[in-house]
Amino acid sequence: MEWLTPSPEEWVAIRLSIRVSLVAMAGSLVPGVAVALLLVRGRFPGRSLLNGLVHLPLVLPPVVTGYVLLLLFGRRGPLGAFLAEHFGLVFSFRWTGAALACAVMGFPLLVRAVRLSIEAVDRRLEEAAGTLGASPLFVFATVTLPLILPGVVAGMILTFAKAMGEFGATITFVSAIPGETQTLPAAIYAFTQVPGGDTGALRLTLVSVAISMAALLGSEVLAARVGRRAHAT
Amino acid sequence: MEWLTPSPEEWVAIRLSIRVSLVAMAGSLVPGVAVALLLVRGRFPGRSLLNGLVHLPLVLPPVVTGYVLLLLFGRRGPLGAFLAEHFGLVFSFRWTGAALACAVMGFPLLVRAVRLSIEAVDRRLEEAAGTLGASPLFVFATVTLPLILPGVVAGMILTFAKAMGEFGATITFVSAIPGETQTLPAAIYAFTQVPGGDTGALRLTLVSVAISMAALLGSEVLAARVGRRAHAT
Amino acid sequence: MTIAVDVAKRLGAFELRAAFRSGERLAALFGPSGSGKTTLVHLVAGLARPDAGRIAVGDTVLFDSAAGIDVPRHRRRIGYVFQDARLFPHLSVRSNLLYGRWFTRATEGEPNLDSVVALLGITHLLGRRPGALSGGERQRVAIGRALLARPRLLLMDEPLSALDEARKAEIIPYIERLRDEAGIPILYVSHSLGEVARLAADMVVLDAGRVVAQGEPLAVARRLDLLPAAAEVEPGRFLDVVATRRDERYGLTTLVLEGGEIVVPDLDLSLGQSVRLRVRARDVMLALERPVGVSALNVLAASVGTARPDGLSGMEVSLDCGGQELLARITRRSFDELRLAPGMAVFAVLKSVSFDRRFGEDADARPVAPTGGSP
Amino acid sequence: MTIAVDVAKRLGAFELRAAFRSGERLAALFGPSGSGKTTLVHLVAGLARPDAGRIAVGDTVLFDSAAGIDVPRHRRRIGYVFQDARLFPHLSVRSNLLYGRWFTRATEGEPNLDSVVALLGITHLLGRRPGALSGGERQRVAIGRALLARPRLLLMDEPLSALDEARKAEIIPYIERLRDEAGIPILYVSHSLGEVARLAADMVVLDAGRVVAQGEPLAVARRLDLLPAAAEVEPGRFLDVVATRRDERYGLTTLVLEGGEIVVPDLDLSLGQSVRLRVRARDVMLALERPVGVSALNVLAASVGTARPDGLSGMEVSLDCGGQELLARITRRSFDELRLAPGMAVFAVLKSVSFDRRFGEDADARPVAPTGGSP
Amino acid sequence: PAAEAQEKGPVVFAAASLKNALDDINAAWKAETGKSATISYAASSALAKQIESGAPADVFFSADLDWMDALAKKDLIKADTRRQLLGNSIVLVGPADAAGSIEIAKGFPLAEKLGDGKLAMASVDSVPAGKYGKAALQSLGVWDAVSPKVAQAENVRAALLLVSRGEAPLGIVYKTDAAADKNVKVVGTFPADTHPAIVYPVALTASAKGDDAAAFLRYIEGDKAKALFERQGFTVLR
Ligand SMILES: Nc1ncnc2c1ncn2[C@@H]1O[C@H](COP(=O)(O)OP(=O)(O)OP(=O)(O)O)[C@@H](O)[C@H]1O
Ligand SMILES: Nc1ncnc2c1ncn2[C@@H]1O[C@H](COP(=O)(O)OP(=O)(O)OP(=O)(O)O)[C@@H](O)[C@H]1O
Ligand SMILES: [Mg+2]
Ligand SMILES: [Mg+2]
């Protein structure tokens, strides 16, 4: 079973992948919920456009998404230059870029999950909260959000899992620099590209699956607890 | 704007991609709903395992998924050989294989969407249908299913969009044989691999986006209509 | 048909442990909020599983933990009008109403869409979705839906509480017809003693998950002065009388008892039939001499029994009326002025009486509201 | 505080077009199922937007389409007890109750958690989730939640219909206290004339989206014999009387009117105060001579007016009692036997009377249930 | 449909980087013979694995010796038909406005030239261009200094893109790729002896049937094809 033990460099990739996935998940949470809310409740002209935009990363081959990210958030890209200048936020060749790519790729999944939950919320409960004096923001925080928590949890776990597997957009956008942007899937990919790399690929795949399954199980437990709280017994 | 007109071979890829995506979507519908139902309502030992299995394609790099499919459903794979022998169902290097790969890749998205909807169903309505004499199957068909339709529609459109963009697993599983397994994303990929392929890639990307956006818009209209029916006015 | 229930069910801190058996066509489940009525009805409908026990309707055992029987809910053929209407939001009112029709033989006659819809006053709503109905409209559709499933037992959980009196007054006779003619036995949950007294021949009283009493509603209510809900029933007593004469001209029937006669509006009683009357204490006036030239036709000879103060200014006087007890509520001042004393002979003048349901057991006699005939 | 409403709102085929203004502390919205009560209340609470119109509570304009005012619902400070409880399923009962507290100054005193919870009998439920409550328990929590938000206007949409009589009897006095002491004006939706008569000084009757009548509840109910719901109110008439003497010994107060006196249990009326009584036709007995030696203390001299048949065996006789009208319901046979004819002098013997709410306007006098004092 | 594909001519599994050249050649072949090949472009690794699991390919045209060797070891190609057909060279590219060129020699100061920028390469352990580049840098003795600054892209095109977009100041790519991109400029060419020969092997697969496959193979080895390969910048080795 020795072949199962990852090498030190592989450990680096594993830790990096977890970090990237967690950041991607956490970072897309607020925008994801906000966009989902906009899409469900908003009545504005660009709604369909926004909806389409959110789904783009799903539709495009990941390589294309990575290419677009490079054009936008690269050192010379309009957004990349702006963010670097004003916020010191640099994505290119950084793990932050990997996280951005993963977040973008997982975004449609997160938004859909949250959206479905929001659509299922009984608006009469929100009305009730309103009559009790709660402002729309407070209503959202104390009524809507708790009720959509299962959907948010589902969306987060989807984003996390997707980030653990995402590779095409990431490697195109920020390439694979060991310790900085070489995530687990990039390492796995590299193994698949050489004859006889199968054991290595299998080893890392097992690690990746183990991590994701643990996260999945955790999310199910969490969702069940949240659900039990919401629906009582 | 001449560069925008796809060549005859590209038209083949476009038509193929649409066919593959539709078949992937339609084919995963019933299993997707069934698995979602099992995961929400079922209380059996292998539940977590099934849940993990469903999420695998999300977690694994697409190349690995494609490779696993190749091992399982290839001409020499255990499932592939079995299906070919007993049902005459051949996946390897056929467009059906592309559809299978796309279906597998989209499956976690479909299941999650349907699952969230099922979790939101008011079980008291199902109870009421039961007291009126409806068997569990009939209850499902006449109460549960109509109530989860928005989720099913969302899941289907996610699967379709994913299939339109899926590339890694497909090309690894069934290669990119023009007219048979070369889907739109594979054609786009090929363009990105050669000097001067950018216009071609852009052209096909635009086509792919246009198709997906049309499908998306259609699904939104459909979901809105379904939703209006369900929630009345 | 007999409903026999003997179940135990635990829900968090609440424990239901109820056993009763009723052969009446309409039995009422009565009890304060949270006493376990809905829980019990859920068990009968198969929406929850008793921890142990047995439930049978007629010869059909629906649940028996000992015998391992648990008929699935869709085979129980039990119509359930829920406390919350539970209409299908994705179906029109018409489809909601007809939902149960999928599962019943479409025999001719009785509960059919047109008649039910007309009775419930929901004809104009047929094309709507439940979301566009008012609370009372929803409840009416729910009643119709359960009826149209042609159940062999109807469970009604406070079906009328969302309705206005006029609508109630329209629907109650229909429920009576269902009970008497369609032969569908009904288990009726209500917290209105008025409704129960009007509809039920048998009342099962739940309190904190136990059956604390069962029997004829008003008798039970009288017995259970402990039951807070009985507060609504004013004090009174029952008189057994016999229908003796009919006055065709004035549409009156004379009921006789030892000590006198009582005249009530004509009621299709067969002569010789014995009937039970409820006389409220506040409807009894006392006179030292038989009054003449008064409009009250009902004057009974009686003798004063015990008396006890009732409130600040009242007295409750017990009377012996040919061996039967009557109660009169008069002011303390009148009591003093008339110098009433135990054993004294007086005349009880009754302004109005009401009929106890017991005589409804005879097929012919129509039940009458508790505040019925005023002679 | 005055509630002034003048709104139009279309919902599908239904059109609400209602205008009323009420200065009473508790105004009732009354009307049959589907008449638009909930719709109207929604508009007041800001849950729906009138197509046009104006809504004001006291000096605060909540909505005015002409002036472009539309106060958002969370700034209206209107407590709403919904017809369906609408508790927050993810919060405990305690958190549900305290939800509104986030938005009110936590001033000392009145509606505080402990008192509300004790009154509503939900202390043992505080730790539960709404899903584990019975229907009536849910409704009680909803009432508590609205109260604890310390609203400046309370909307109650059939708040008591899910409750048993005993519980109702407990809560009604509390609502009265809210109305009288806490000074929270209440708009109370109900289809029970009994509740309305007991609680409301002012009743707005809706029918098919229009205001068809407004005024003192029983008076309106009497006027609107057209209104099907009025069926529940037995025929009767009002007498204006003056409290004249108090009999300390027997705890009685004598009310005087032309034609005689009526004695009622002591009611803390100031002498000289004028009061309105409701006398039900079935509580009036007629005698040709003043009865002596009877327990009824209330004998009024009257003269027979018109009479009309009432049902198969009854007669409704109108009496002139010192200029005021009384109604008596007697049997046709008595009518004939007494040879009653217009103009004839008779004596009306009243078994019981009830007080009209109008005298409740005097701060001191406690309102009394319609079936109150029986002398 | 599979039979249809057979009728259309031989099925060719070719490395994606050959697309331009092979598409041209296929068109020319069709013009001459009326037949055309069905060409599936993907990564050499994926194609090889597919052939291993029974893909209906007649010709395998790899960008990588290793994968051809792997198939040969398993007798999945007709060894006698194998040719090392094309050659290529790897170059150092910089932005189009780069001043002058860099002399590539033993110990040349690549790390210093990079500054705090990255060196864009295809994946150095798996992608041929990356492997050649790494070998070259190792033989030049600069790998250890440079390796921390290497950004490994999925393939050589992606590496080129990084330079083209200005993300990385320098990159190592095929000459064929560099030539077509106006945003980059070749600043140095790696001497052929610094790395293993860059060759594109081609062969008939063991399962190849019919004459068309052999005919097509012969055609791409012919003179017409040579010109078309050379137009794309390849060196034809024979
Ligand atoms: N969304 C809607 N579309 C069309 N009609 C509606 C809609 N909502 C309510 N209605 C109709 O408006 C009328 C008034 O409804 P509302 O809920 O105000 O009645 P209500 O007086 O509260 O009755 P109840 O006592 O039964 O609760 C009803 O006839 C109802 O059918
Ligand atoms: N899931 C649960 N967990 C714990 N207690 C529960 C649960 N469901 C109901 N109860 C409790 O069981 C008791 C009986 O509830 P049930 O709904 O049967 O009352 P009910 O008699 O129908 O009352 P109502 O007249 O208010 O509808 C209540 O005290 C309620 O709080
Ligand atoms: Mg209940
Ligand atoms: Mg209503």
From TrEMBL, chains A, B:
Keywords: Cell inner membrane, Cell membrane, Membrane, Molybdenum, Transmembrane, Transmembrane helix, Transport. Its main location: membrane. Pfam families: BPD_transp_1. Coiled coil: none annotated. PROSITE patterns: ABC_TM1 (PS50928). The chain crosses the membrane at residues 20-40, 52-73, 93-111, 132-158, 201-223. Residues 14-217 form the ABC transmembrane type-1 domain. Part of the binding-protein-dependent transport system for molybdenum; probably responsible for the translocation of the substrate across the membrane. PANTHER family: MOLYBDENUM TRANSPORT SYSTEM PERMEASE PROTEIN MODB (PTHR30183). This is Molybdenum transport system permease. It comes from Plantimonas leprariae. The lineage of its organism: Bacteria, Pseudomonadati, Pseudomonadota, Alphaproteobacteria, Hyphomicrobiales. The gene is modB.
Automatic annotation (TrEMBL), chains C, D:
Residues 293-359 form the Mop domain. Residues 2-233 form the ABC transporter domain. Signal peptide: none annotated. GO terms for cellular component: membrane. SMART domains: AAA. GO terms for molecular function: ABC-type transporter activity; ATP binding; ATP hydrolysis activity; molybdate ion transmembrane transporter activity. InterPro entries: AAA+_ATPase, ABC_transporter-like_ATP-bd, ABC_transporter-like_CS, Mo/tungstate-bd_C_term_dom, ModC_ABC_ATP-bd, Molybdenum_import_ModC, Mop_domain, P-loop_NTPase. Keywords: ATP-binding, Cell inner membrane, Cell membrane, Membrane, Molybdenum, Nucleotide-binding, Translocase, Transport. It holds the Pfam family ABC_tran. Belongs to the ABC transporter superfamily. NCBIfam families: modC_ABC. This is Molybdenum ABC transporter ATP-binding protein. The lineage of its organism: Bacteria, Pseudomonadati, Pseudomonadota, Alphaproteobacteria, Hyphomicrobiales.
